Amino acid sequence: MSTVKITPSAASLSTTIKHLASIQRPRLPNTIFTNSFAKFRAPRRAFTVSMAASVDTPLEVCVKQSITTPNKLGDCPFTQRVLLTLEEKHLPYDMKFVDLSNKPDWFLKISPEGKVPLIKLDEKWVPDSDVITQALEEKFPEPPLTTPPEKASVGSKIFPKFVAFVKSKDPSDGTEKALLDELTAFNDYLKENGPFINGNEVSAADLSLGPKLYHLEIALGYYRNWSVPDSFSWVKSYMKSIFSRESFINTRALKEDVIEGWRPKVMAFMSNNMYVQYPPKAGFVSLHAVVQVLGIVNVQFYWVEILLLQAFDLMIHVIGIT
């Protein structure tokens, strides 16, 4: 295996973790430290590997590094989609953690746009989860994960509706309803065609949607105190089935990483719109700054800021301060 060795610094560390998903190796200690690389052996998993999916050298995959815990996978749903595909096809792989807040030079050389996921196939670095998963399906066709074209887009509108809702500054702006409409359609589809998108077997569409629903569950639960309604029983059962798969457990991000990953997106949107809707008046800039700081600590203070600014705006009009 060709491995790029980077000398870690205090600000940037790339760690390679060897994840052996399907091949038997001689017995080794559970943890081996070699210079700046920590290599971990994955637990043995009992399954049959087809000849078509058998590879001798683990595939190299560049992934987002956790921002909360060293040497852990970060919170990118598109990266998890690729890792899920590798897991479901029982392909061994090496994860190369990349600090996306301080991208190392070696990573920018192979990924000029600085994006993950990135996988090395036939000595070439391939970007984009759509391209990667298609390439894996063609190169390693067993077990097949292809979703029929007429079903490939099922549930695909849920994620953008979730993003709009989690960033929403107005609870009555229709973003929640838009999400509920998509979940209703998906629930009805699963009721007639489930338990998975392509029937009884997991397919590529599930491996794409699953990580996004995982983010939806965590982010909306934390930032909106919102969860998928119990009336969507087929959706909830679907999520439970996907989230409990061994492949998903092996590749999911920490809950803390999902929360922190969405924090700047949620807070930036709220703060920007706050200034547009409620520009601070003269003499009250310091108050706005204080509640902005509180908002960084907990997004729930956003609504406190709205109420305070509305109250002060009313007082300003009453006493005639401009």
TrEMBL record:
Reaction equation(s) it catalyzes: L-dehydroascorbate + 2 glutathione = glutathione disulfide + L-ascorbate; RX + glutathione = an S-substituted glutathione + a halide anion + H(+)
Alphabetized UniProt keyword annotations: Detoxification, Oxidoreductase, Transferase
Highest taxon of source: Eukaryota
Residue stretches making up the GST N-terminal domain: 66-144
Boundaries of every GST C-terminal domain copy: 122-268
Record PROSITE patterns: GST_CTER, GST_NTER
Keyword Lyase: no
Signal peptide boundaries: none
Family of the protein in this entry: Belongs to the GST superfamily. DHAR family.
This protein's name: Glutathione S-transferase dhar3, chloroplastic
